[in-house]
Design a protein that fits this description.
- The complex is a heterodimer of chains A (about 700) and B (about 475).
- By secondary structure, chain A is of the alpha/beta class.
- Chain A has 25 helices and 26 strands.
- Chain A folds into four domains: about 240 residues, Thiamin diphosphate (ThDP)-binding fold, Pyr/PP domains (Rossmann fold, 3-Layer(aba) Sandwich), CATH 3.40.50.970; about 140 residues, Rossmann fold; about 170 residues, Thiamin diphosphate (ThDP)-binding fold, Pyr/PP domains (Rossmann fold); about 100 residues, Alpha-Beta Plaits (2-Layer Sandwich), CATH 3.30.70.
- In chain A, helix 19 links the parallel strand 17 and strand 18.
- In chain A, helix 2 crosses helix 3 and helix 5 packs parallel to helix 7.
- Chain A is globular and about 100 Å long.
- Chain A starts with 7 loop residues before the first helix and ends with a helix.
- Chain B is of the alpha/beta class and about 475 residues long.
- Chain B folds into three domains: about 210 residues, 3-Layer(aba) Sandwich (Pyruvate-ferredoxin Oxidoreductase, domain 3), CATH 3.40.920.10; about 150 residues, no CATH class; about 90 residues, no CATH class.
- The chains are: A alpha/beta (about 700), B alpha/beta (about 475).
């Protein structure tokens, strides 16, 4: 389903049988584990770090068909969550996935209504815990959602066998306690390369090949609807919780590791196990193979806790350290409460020695462990405080280095839209810009620094609803086609039409959800298995009654400036939509490169365009870069011995998108830019003309040189 | 080696999205597997793959699995400061970032860094020279690493026809710190089945790139007055004629006996101001560069992008007419905003003829409106410099260098000219009039120039 990457090799791994070794990424191990668990259906919405789960299953379409596993590429997380409704009525296992807490938020309605009646078939939600270094979303944890809906939360040790084990247990736990289960994986755990011993895949008993003859019989108890919701709420705590706790203890989902220092201990979230073990090894308290001097309780299930298990671990210990990432410290509070109620006076350390919020990095852990060990009288080789090493680095460099955030790719069709906005802002002044989630949010970085707010995926227009009425100038909302179909159509467009809003909406129509790996969307030219979905944004908007609708080819900057100016100034009241049309350049180049190679081989005419800068004309003011930021438009030493400032320069990576020329026209920039088109396999006529022209021009040039 | 002390070999690769760091990681993992060593790799690709900075982290156990009696090492998922054996950066600034994050330490780290630069947007967008001091980065690398190997691996890659990741893999192998040998790594490259020959060559080149390659010297800016004058004479004779070059020397003459720093600053800036960029100059430059026919007799088309506005047209009109038009523009917005967007195909006879006609207007330049404007401005500026230099040589240099504000074409040029005027009036003129506290004026002027140059899309505020 992803245009960016083929998973042919990974698909082969999904077929591995008993005793064979699977090698690959954590998220692909989860995918294999789903098949080993007899899953009947899988759905999801793309996003780092879990996109590959669905991508690989879609590429494994034949195999899924053989096994009768239904795979759905959902239009958003809410529809993915709702899919789990199948497990409410039928004894079938299902799994869905999405990127992180932001997806969970979108899915919340479905999840709450799933959790209340509960499930009879195992329901697993694989969610990326996009927390800490490299995270691309707001920093919140899944834990709170699991708690408020009474869903269980697995946080396995980031080791492939442990992760695979927890997937299989997750389904069983879900069925044993009639409760949907989250499996959370931190970013690095999703991308960890490791191995595990595979088992045979299990063809689900209920599958798309051997379907059920009858639908489930009517059972009001399966509806999250009063009055049964009251009993469901109580059952969550009185029936399902004890069953879950039994399962957790009976199958040893949480792991206790004994150690020689029996008077102290560490309780840790499974996901933090590896970073903790390394710190203990460096501090002389463990070896490199997981044997620790300090006893440990590893919580591979972080919700629910099993109070008896915790009390058992703590009761003969003077001090225990709880390592729980994030805030508030739900687990620590629960343990404190359990200890108090059972009269165990073990001293519990936690957020008092650890940072109150943020990732538990090696740096943070070493600091916290040092304090804990000092308090309990453990002598450890003193490692250099990590902060000092950072300082030494900074001292050697003299000053912090400029950041290098992600940005628009070379030739990206979204860049010209922001160039146009900047040009227009010079003319009309600043306007309020509602930004959105997607590649286009890179416009908030230099050189554009555009965007006043981001409120969620597809939410830009909705987030301008109460801004626009208080602005003299119309505000501009920008969303991608991915965001449009995900949520923007209803939350934004329809709401604006209903309320007669007077906003401007730019929809970046690049044909894919590009930021997540170019998955297909309803308006993609082609989707899964070459199916043509045939839904278009323009027709959808027209059908809704959007009358001010323009489609502008993004690289035509002047045209975009004119259209935007028109949208800002037209007397037309109501929603004004500009579809900024230009295919994702990554996807396009991948296609064009292939087509070109074929054409060249066939001897057909092929034109290779690229831009360049005339070094003698460039004055080094870099106005062009401030309207572009293209990776292929860079700077180079000035060849002019009288000038110090570097000149603009274009590298060989230029794809000839035309933006450099278009901004010259739109902003009256310097005449340095020129485009070279090299024609391969030119025909005889073209060659003749070219030779003739060159000859005449050479004569004219000779004359011009007087 | 007791178990408690045993530790994995740790490897951090810092790269930019799209450089093949993921493939490099796969090679290392595959080679370790094949050679029987426990290995783990992680990354945080996410959206960083879209041209941003990203890292890949690997740990390899130095003993083969067969020697571990069923024990499995617990690998960390992220690098820890002070605990990285090899840091390999595909770009110099990213090596610096590893240093800044504390991953390069003298007791342990072998640093491999490509010395080529891929500039960050912040460095590129600065109106003047926003580039980071590469020497400082190099020195920091050498100071903090246990061993360092700094070379232009990007260049090595293009010479060997490989991608940079293969070259970096070779350089990593050359440290001798990986438990598996070069054969296992080469086999991993072969097993990928893509661009195998190129990548094997790149790998070998990376292995051999142990010694620091000399950096190609950038064509430096001229410091010697006579050399500048020679360069300037040639340029101005080309721009106009020998008499114009003589005029340059005459203008420079009064400064030659004074402070050398002032003379150099004037010489450099005067040449640039006198060779200003009007349509004639641009046309002259453009027609000189004609594409060579493609090697196979193929066809090349060249398209030039121009968008002269009213101001640029008036530049080359007789003063009387230009003044009349500009006066009209003051109260006629439509007329003022006139611009002519042109895409000229200079590989066609007609396109070339049009440019060549413009270039031929050169002999008439002295009679154009812009010529007069520029000469007056130059004389006024030289007068400022002269007065400033008498008070304080440093202020003289400052007054001369203020010219660097005037850059670019069209709007950019107009804004630069306005900024020049404002800085001059707010910082230089008061000092010239009072003749006191010239050092303060130098500081103020430098600040104002920097402010103007840091945001060339904005007019600087009135002081």
């Amino acid at each position: 389903m992803s245009a960016e990457r083929s998973f042919a090799k990974e698909v082969e791994q999904l077929r591995l049988g008993d005793g064979e070794t699977f090698r690959g990424e954590g998220i692909l191990a989860v995918t294999k584990a789903l098949l080993q668990s007899g899953v009947s259906y899988v759905g999801g919405y793309q996003g780092a770090p879990v996109s590959h789960l669905i991508d690989v299953l879609v590429d494994a379409e034949d195999m899924m068909a053989e096994m009768g596993v239904h795979v759905e590429t959902c239009t958003n997380e809410a529809s993915a969550a709702a899919m789990l409704g199948a497990s409410v009525n039928y004894p079938i296992r299902g799994a869905v996935t999405w990127k992180s807490i932001v997806g969970t938020n979108v899915a919340s309605d479905g999840l709450s209504n799933l959790a209340s009646p509960g499930v009879i078939g195992g329901a697993l939600i694989v969610v990326g815990e996009d927390y800490g270094e490299g995270a691309s979303v707001i920093q919140e944890r899944t834990h709170a959602v699991a708690m408020k809906s009474s869903m269980w939360l697995l946080d396995p040790r980031p080791d492939l066998p442990a992760i695979v084990d927890m997937v299989e247990h997750g389904f069983a736990l879900s069925e044993a306690s009639n409760t949907p289960v989250f499996l959370e994986l931190r970013i690095r755990a999703c991308h960890v390369q490791g191995e595990f011993l595979a088992k045979d895949n299990v063809k689900p008993a209920v599958n798309a090949r051997d379907g059920l003859t009858d639908p489930a019989k009517f059972d009001y108890a399966h509806l999250p609807h009063p009055p049964v919701t009251y009993t469901q709420e109580i059952a969550k705590v009185t029936e399902r919780l004890p069953k879950a706790q039994d399962y957790i203890v009976k199958h040893g989902l949480n792991e206790v590791f004994e150690g020689e220092r029996a008077d102290i201990g560490i309780i840790v979230q499974g996901g933090l196990y590896n970073v903790l073990m390394r710190r203990l090894a460096v501090m002389g308290q463990a070896d490199a193979f997981g044997n620790s001097k300090v006893p440990m309780l590893v919580l591979n299930v972080t919700h629910p806790l099993v109070p008896d298990q915790i009390i058992e671990f703590c009761k003969d210990k003077k001090s225990v350290l709880m390592l729980e990432e994030g805030n508030p410290e739900f687990i620590e509070h629960q343990i404190n409460s359990a200890l108090r109620k059972s009269g165990v006076d073990t001293q519990l350390y936690g957020k008092d020695v650890m940072p109150p919020a943020g990732e538990y990095s090696a740096e943070a852990l070493q600091q916290g462990l040092t304090t804990f060990f000092e308090a309990v009288g453990i002598d450890h080789p003193s490692a250099t405080p990590k902060a000092d090493l950072r300082q030494a680095g900074l001292d050697a460099l003299g000053a912090p280095l400029p950041p290098r955030p992600p940005g628009f790719c070379t030739g990206c069709p979204e860049r010209p839209v922001y160039a146009a906005i900047k040009v227009l802002e010079e003319e009309v002044g600043k306007v309020h810009i509602s930004a959105d989630i997607g590649c286009h949010s890179f416009a908030t970085f230099e050189p554009f620094s555009l965007g006043n707010s981001i409120l969620g995926f597809g939410m830009s227009l909705a987030s301008a609803a109460a801004v626009a009425p208080f602005q003299k100038k119309r505000s501009i909302s920008i969303m991608g086609d991915g965001g449009f179909w995900h949520n923007g159509l209803t939350s934004g467009v329809i709401s604006s039409l209903l309320n007669q809003g007077d906003s401007i909406l730019i929809i970046m129509q690049n044909g894919y959800t590009s930021a997540t790996g170019q998955q297909f969307i309803p308006s993609s030219a082609k989707a899964r298995g070459d199916h043509v979905p045939g839904m278009t944004i323009g027709e959808t908007l027209s059908a809704l009654g959007v009358s001010w609708l323009r489609t502008v080819y993004t690289y035509g900057v002047s045209n975009m400036v004119d259209t935007l100016r028109d949208a800002l100034t037209t007397p037309h009241q109501g929603l004004k939509v500009i579809i900024a049309d230009g295919e994702c350049q990554l996807a396009k180049q991948r296609r064009v490169r292939q087509e070109r190679a074929v054409s060249l081989k066939k001897g057909e005419r092929v034109v290779l365009p690229r831009f360049d800068v005339d070094a003698d004309i460039c004055t080094g003011d870099h106005a062009c870069i401030r309207l572009s930021g293209c990776p292929s438009l860079t700077i180079a030493p000035n060849p002019d011995p009288l000038k110090a400032d570097p000149i603009a320069s274009i590298t060989d990576t230029c794809v000839g998108c035309g933006l450099c020329g278009a901004v010259v026209h739109a902003d009256g920039l310097c005449p340095s830019f020129y485009m070279t088109e090299t024609v391969m396999n030119a025909g005889g006529g073209e060659r003749f003309m070219s030779t003739l022209r060159q000859g005449v021009i050479a004569m004219m040039a000779g004359a011009a040189h007087d | 080696m007791t178990d408690a002390q045993a530790r994995p070999v740790t490897l951090l690769v810092a790269a930019l999205g799209g450089e093949g760091g993921g493939v490099l990681t796969d090679w290392v993992v595959a080679a370790a597997h094949a050679a029987g060593y426990p290995v783990q790799a992680t990354s945080i690709p996410g959206v960083a793959q879209r041209t941003g900075a990203t890292t890949y982290y690997m740990e390899i156990w130095p003993e083969p699995t067969s020697a571990l009696n069923g024990k499995r090492p617990v690998f960390a998922l992220a690098p820890a400061q002070g605990e990285v054996d090899i840091v390999a950066a595909t770009e110099l600034l990213e090596a610096g970032r590893c240093i800044m994050n504390g991953y390069v330490t003298p007791d342990r780290t072998h640093l491999i860094a490509s010395t080529h630069r891929t500039y960050t947007t912040l460095e590129k967008m600065a109106p003047g020279d926003g580039r980071l001091d590469a020497d400082g980065l190099r020195k920091a690398a050498e100071a903090l690493a246990k061993k360092s190997m700094l070379a232009d691996l990007g260049e090595v890659a293009s010479e060997s026809g490989a991608f940079i990741n293969a070259v970096v893999l070779g350089a990593i192998a050359a440290t001798g710190l990986l438990p598996m040998g070069k054969d296992a790594l080469e086999e991993a490259i072969r097993a990928t089945g893509k661009a195998v020959n190129g990548n094997l060559k790149g790998f070998q080149a990376g292995l051999d790139a142990g010694k620091q390659t000399a950096e190609a010297d950038a064509p430096g800016i001229l410091e010697d007055l006579d050399a500048i004058v020679a360069e300037a004479r040639e340029r101005l004779a080309d721009f106009q004629d020998a008499a114009y070059a003589d005029q340059y020397e005459a203008r420079l003459a009064p400064f030659r006996d004074g402070e050398p720093a002032v003379a150099v600053a004037v010489a450099r800036n005067l040449a640039q101001r006198m060779a200003y960029g009007d349509i004639i100059r641009v046309a002259q430059t453009k027609i000189r560069k004609r594409p060579q026919a493609a090697a196979d007799g193929g066809v090349v088309h060249v398209t030039q992008y121009f968008r002269p506005g009213l101001a640029e047209i008036c530049d080359i009109l007789p003063p009387a007419l230009a003044k009349r038009w500009l006066a009209r523009a003051e109260h006629d917005e439509w007329f003022a905003s006139k611009q002519w967007a042109m895409e000229l195909r200079t590989t066609t006879i007609w396109g070339f003829a049009r440019l060549s006609f413009l270039a031929k207007l050169k002999p008439l330049r002295r009679r154009t409106y812009r010529y007069g404007v520029e000469q007056n401005a130059i004389d006024a500026w030289l007068d400022d410099v002269r007065r400033a230099a008498v008070l304080d040589a440093e202020l003289g240099v400052e007054a001369a260098e203020m010219s660097r504000l005037i850059k670019g074409y069209g709007k950019t040029h107009a804004r630069g000219t306005r900024n020049f005027k404002r800085v001059r009036e707010s910082t230089l003129l008061p000092a010239l009039d009072n003749g006191s506290d010239t050092q303060n004026a130098v500081r103020e002027s430098r600040k104002a120039v920097d402010a103007a140059r840091s945001d060339m899309r904005a007019d600087i505020a009135d002081a």
